[in-house]
Amino acid sequence: LPAPYASAASLGAAAHFVLCAGAAKLRVGGLRGWISPCTMSTYLQIYRSSGSAPPLCPNLSRAIGTRAWAARAAGVGTLALELFVLPGLLLAPPRVRWLGWLLMLFLHLGIGLAMSCQVGLVFLTTLPAYYIGFSCSAPVGSNQWLLAASLAWLPTLASAATGLPIPEVWPLSPFALFMHNGTDAQRLASATMTGDGRLVLFTECLTELEGRRVLGVMDRSSHGGPDRGEGP
Fold it and tell me: Which runs of consecutive H residues, i.e. helices, occur in the chain?
Protein backbone atom coordinates (compact mmCIF):
# COMPACT_ATOMS: atom_id res chain seq x y z
CA LEU A 1 0.00 0.00 0.00
CA PRO A 2 1.14 3.60 -0.58
CA ALA A 3 2.36 5.21 2.64
CA PRO A 4 -0.81 7.28 3.34
CA TYR A 5 -3.02 4.20 2.94
CA ALA A 6 -0.68 2.01 4.96
CA SER A 7 -0.87 4.56 7.78
CA ALA A 8 -4.67 4.58 7.54
CA ALA A 9 -4.76 0.79 7.58
CA SER A 10 -2.64 0.82 10.74
CA LEU A 11 -5.12 3.20 12.37
CA GLY A 12 -8.03 0.99 11.34
CA ALA A 13 -6.34 -2.14 12.68
CA ALA A 14 -5.50 -0.50 16.03
CA ALA A 15 -9.06 0.77 16.49
CA HIS A 16 -10.48 -2.60 15.39
CA PHE A 17 -8.52 -4.52 18.02
CA VAL A 18 -9.72 -2.19 20.79
CA LEU A 19 -13.34 -2.06 19.61
CA CYS A 20 -13.74 -5.81 19.23
CA ALA A 21 -12.34 -6.30 22.74
CA GLY A 22 -15.12 -4.12 24.13
CA ALA A 23 -17.72 -5.78 21.91
CA ALA A 24 -16.63 -9.21 23.20
CA LYS A 25 -17.26 -8.04 26.76
CA LEU A 26 -20.81 -7.07 25.82
CA ARG A 27 -21.44 -10.27 23.86
CA VAL A 28 -20.06 -12.71 26.42
CA GLY A 29 -20.27 -10.96 29.78
CA GLY A 30 -23.23 -8.71 29.09
CA LEU A 31 -23.46 -5.00 29.78
CA ARG A 32 -25.08 -5.37 33.19
CA GLY A 33 -22.70 -8.13 34.18
CA TRP A 34 -19.54 -6.38 33.05
CA ILE A 35 -20.24 -3.04 34.71
CA SER A 36 -21.12 -4.78 37.97
CA PRO A 37 -18.50 -4.21 40.71
CA CYS A 38 -18.26 -7.99 41.01
CA THR A 39 -16.55 -8.33 37.64
CA MET A 40 -13.55 -6.08 38.16
CA SER A 41 -13.27 -7.17 41.79
CA THR A 42 -13.12 -10.79 40.65
CA TYR A 43 -10.38 -10.21 38.09
CA LEU A 44 -8.31 -8.22 40.57
CA GLN A 45 -8.73 -10.85 43.28
CA ILE A 46 -7.82 -13.70 40.93
CA TYR A 47 -4.53 -12.12 39.90
CA ARG A 48 -3.81 -10.73 43.37
CA SER A 49 -3.81 -14.28 44.71
CA SER A 50 -1.77 -15.59 41.78
CA GLY A 51 1.72 -16.85 42.51
CA SER A 52 2.95 -16.39 38.94
CA ALA A 53 1.29 -13.18 37.71
CA PRO A 54 0.49 -10.88 40.66
CA PRO A 55 0.11 -7.09 40.36
CA LEU A 56 3.00 -4.75 40.99
CA CYS A 57 0.96 -2.97 43.65
CA PRO A 58 -1.27 -5.39 45.58
CA ASN A 59 -2.45 -2.60 47.88
CA LEU A 60 -3.79 -0.66 44.90
CA SER A 61 -5.46 -3.81 43.60
CA ARG A 62 -7.07 -4.40 46.98
CA ALA A 63 -8.15 -0.77 47.31
CA ILE A 64 -9.99 -0.89 43.99
CA GLY A 65 -11.33 -4.41 44.29
CA THR A 66 -12.80 -4.01 47.77
CA ARG A 67 -14.65 -0.77 47.02
CA ALA A 68 -17.77 -1.22 44.94
CA TRP A 69 -17.70 2.30 43.51
CA ALA A 70 -14.05 1.97 42.42
CA ALA A 71 -14.55 -1.47 40.88
CA ARG A 72 -17.63 -0.28 39.01
CA ALA A 73 -15.79 2.84 37.80
CA ALA A 74 -12.94 0.66 36.50
CA GLY A 75 -15.38 -1.56 34.61
CA VAL A 76 -17.37 1.33 33.16
CA GLY A 77 -14.16 3.13 32.22
CA THR A 78 -12.81 0.05 30.45
CA LEU A 79 -15.97 -0.35 28.36
CA ALA A 80 -16.11 3.36 27.57
CA LEU A 81 -12.48 3.37 26.45
CA GLU A 82 -12.83 0.30 24.25
CA LEU A 83 -16.27 0.97 22.76
CA PHE A 84 -16.35 4.74 22.37
CA VAL A 85 -13.24 6.75 23.20
CA LEU A 86 -10.55 5.01 21.15
CA PRO A 87 -12.72 3.98 18.17
CA GLY A 88 -14.23 7.47 18.28
CA LEU A 89 -10.82 9.08 17.79
CA LEU A 90 -11.26 8.32 14.09
CA LEU A 91 -13.82 11.13 14.09
CA ALA A 92 -11.42 13.52 15.82
CA PRO A 93 -9.02 15.89 14.05
CA PRO A 94 -5.71 14.17 13.22
CA ARG A 95 -3.83 16.46 15.62
CA VAL A 96 -5.47 14.84 18.67
CA ARG A 97 -5.38 11.18 17.63
CA TRP A 98 -2.06 10.69 19.42
CA LEU A 99 -4.12 10.59 22.60
CA GLY A 100 -5.09 7.06 21.57
CA TRP A 101 -1.70 5.48 22.13
CA LEU A 102 -1.19 7.55 25.28
CA LEU A 103 -4.46 6.22 26.72
CA MET A 104 -3.40 2.67 25.85
CA LEU A 105 -0.08 3.25 27.61
CA PHE A 106 -1.85 4.36 30.78
CA LEU A 107 -4.28 1.44 30.49
CA HIS A 108 -1.46 -1.10 30.31
CA LEU A 109 0.43 0.56 33.15
CA GLY A 110 -2.74 0.38 35.22
CA ILE A 111 -3.12 -3.30 34.39
CA GLY A 112 0.43 -3.97 35.50
CA LEU A 113 0.05 -2.02 38.74
CA ALA A 114 -3.41 -3.16 39.85
CA MET A 115 -4.09 -6.48 38.13
CA SER A 116 -1.04 -8.34 36.80
CA CYS A 117 2.50 -7.21 36.11
CA GLN A 118 2.95 -10.05 33.63
CA VAL A 119 -0.21 -9.21 31.68
CA GLY A 120 0.64 -5.51 31.63
CA LEU A 121 4.18 -6.21 30.43
CA VAL A 122 2.96 -8.45 27.62
CA PHE A 123 0.53 -5.82 26.40
CA LEU A 124 3.21 -3.14 26.39
CA THR A 125 4.66 -4.90 23.34
CA THR A 126 1.60 -3.72 21.37
CA LEU A 127 2.30 -0.04 21.99
CA PRO A 128 4.36 0.45 18.80
CA ALA A 129 1.33 -0.67 16.77
CA TYR A 130 -0.91 1.77 18.61
CA TYR A 131 1.66 4.55 18.25
CA ILE A 132 1.86 4.05 14.49
CA GLY A 133 -1.89 3.68 14.12
CA PHE A 134 -2.98 6.68 16.15
CA SER A 135 -0.31 8.85 14.50
CA CYS A 136 -2.26 8.66 11.23
CA SER A 137 -2.85 12.11 9.75
CA ALA A 138 -5.65 11.20 7.31
CA PRO A 139 -8.33 13.95 7.36
CA VAL A 140 -11.85 12.86 8.28
CA GLY A 141 -13.77 12.00 5.11
CA SER A 142 -10.73 11.38 2.92
CA ASN A 143 -10.23 8.14 1.02
CA GLN A 144 -7.53 7.10 3.48
CA TRP A 145 -9.89 7.82 6.38
CA LEU A 146 -12.62 5.72 4.76
CA LEU A 147 -10.19 2.79 4.66
CA ALA A 148 -9.35 3.25 8.34
CA ALA A 149 -13.00 3.58 9.34
CA SER A 150 -13.96 0.47 7.36
CA LEU A 151 -11.28 -1.65 8.98
CA ALA A 152 -12.08 -0.29 12.44
CA TRP A 153 -15.86 -0.42 12.52
CA LEU A 154 -17.25 -2.76 9.87
CA PRO A 155 -16.17 -6.11 11.40
CA THR A 156 -17.80 -5.32 14.75
CA LEU A 157 -20.89 -3.77 13.14
CA ALA A 158 -21.30 -6.80 10.87
CA SER A 159 -20.92 -9.10 13.87
CA ALA A 160 -23.56 -7.18 15.80
CA ALA A 161 -25.96 -7.14 12.83
CA THR A 162 -25.66 -10.86 12.06
CA GLY A 163 -25.25 -12.13 15.60
CA LEU A 164 -22.15 -14.06 14.52
CA PRO A 165 -18.74 -13.70 16.15
CA ILE A 166 -15.86 -12.22 14.18
CA PRO A 167 -13.93 -15.11 12.57
CA GLU A 168 -10.66 -16.12 14.21
CA VAL A 169 -8.88 -15.52 10.91
CA TRP A 170 -6.17 -12.96 10.22
CA PRO A 171 -6.44 -10.02 9.61
CA LEU A 172 -9.82 -9.82 11.37
CA SER A 173 -8.81 -11.92 14.38
CA PRO A 174 -10.70 -10.43 17.35
CA PHE A 175 -8.97 -9.31 20.51
CA ALA A 176 -11.41 -10.91 22.94
CA LEU A 177 -9.70 -10.70 26.34
CA PHE A 178 -11.27 -10.62 29.82
CA MET A 179 -14.70 -10.82 28.25
CA HIS A 180 -16.39 -12.84 31.02
CA ASN A 181 -18.41 -11.25 33.78
CA GLY A 182 -17.42 -11.76 37.40
CA THR A 183 -19.50 -14.88 38.01
CA ASP A 184 -18.21 -16.70 34.93
CA ALA A 185 -14.64 -15.51 35.47
CA GLN A 186 -14.66 -16.87 39.01
CA ARG A 187 -16.02 -20.20 37.80
CA LEU A 188 -13.36 -20.49 35.10
CA ALA A 189 -10.58 -19.45 37.46
CA SER A 190 -11.66 -21.99 40.07
CA ALA A 191 -11.74 -24.75 37.47
CA THR A 192 -8.47 -24.04 35.65
CA MET A 193 -6.35 -21.48 37.51
CA THR A 194 -6.72 -21.06 41.26
CA GLY A 195 -7.75 -24.64 42.13
CA ASP A 196 -5.96 -27.89 41.42
CA GLY A 197 -7.36 -28.23 37.88
CA ARG A 198 -5.52 -27.18 34.77
CA LEU A 199 -6.25 -26.89 31.06
CA VAL A 200 -3.74 -29.12 29.29
CA LEU A 201 -2.94 -28.80 25.58
CA PHE A 202 -0.94 -31.59 24.00
CA THR A 203 -0.11 -33.22 20.68
CA GLU A 204 0.77 -36.89 21.02
CA CYS A 205 2.47 -37.71 24.32
CA LEU A 206 0.16 -38.42 27.25
CA THR A 207 2.73 -39.88 29.62
CA GLU A 208 2.71 -36.79 31.82
CA LEU A 209 -1.02 -37.24 32.41
CA GLU A 210 -0.79 -40.84 33.53
CA GLY A 211 -2.27 -41.26 36.97
CA ARG A 212 -3.78 -37.77 36.94
CA ARG A 213 -7.46 -36.90 37.25
CA VAL A 214 -8.52 -35.99 33.71
CA LEU A 215 -11.99 -34.67 32.99
CA GLY A 216 -11.71 -34.58 29.24
CA VAL A 217 -9.07 -35.06 26.59
CA MET A 218 -9.33 -34.03 22.96
CA ASP A 219 -6.57 -35.36 20.73
CA ARG A 220 -5.77 -33.05 17.83
CA SER A 221 -2.45 -34.64 16.98
CA SER A 222 -0.96 -34.61 13.51
CA HIS A 223 -1.99 -38.24 13.12
CA GLY A 224 -5.64 -37.29 13.33
CA GLY A 225 -6.41 -39.71 16.15
CA PRO A 226 -9.91 -39.92 17.57
CA ASP A 227 -11.09 -37.73 20.38
CA ARG A 228 -10.79 -39.41 23.72
CA GLY A 229 -12.56 -38.61 26.95
CA GLU A 230 -12.01 -39.97 30.41
CA GLY A 231 -14.02 -39.55 33.55
CA PRO A 232 -12.62 -38.50 36.88
Answer: 3-28, 31-34, 37-48, 58-65, 68-80, 86-88, 99-114, 117-124, 127-133, 143-162, 182-192
Amino acid at residue number 97? R
Residue 81, SS3 per DSSP: helix
Q: By the 8 A CB rule, do 153 and 23 touch?
A: no
The CA angle 9-129-143, to the nearest 5 degrees, is: 15
State how far the Cα of 74 lies from the Cα of 80, in Å rounded to an integer.
10
pTM: 0.80
Does residue 77 sit in helix, strand or coil?
Answer: helix
The answer on pLDDT for 41 being more than 60 is yes
The average confidence (pLDDT) of the chain is: 85
Q: What single DSSP character describes residue 228?
A: B
Q: What are residue 217's DSSP bridge partners?
A: 228
φ/ψ (deg, to 5) at 132: -65, -45
118/137 Cα distance (integer angstroms): 33
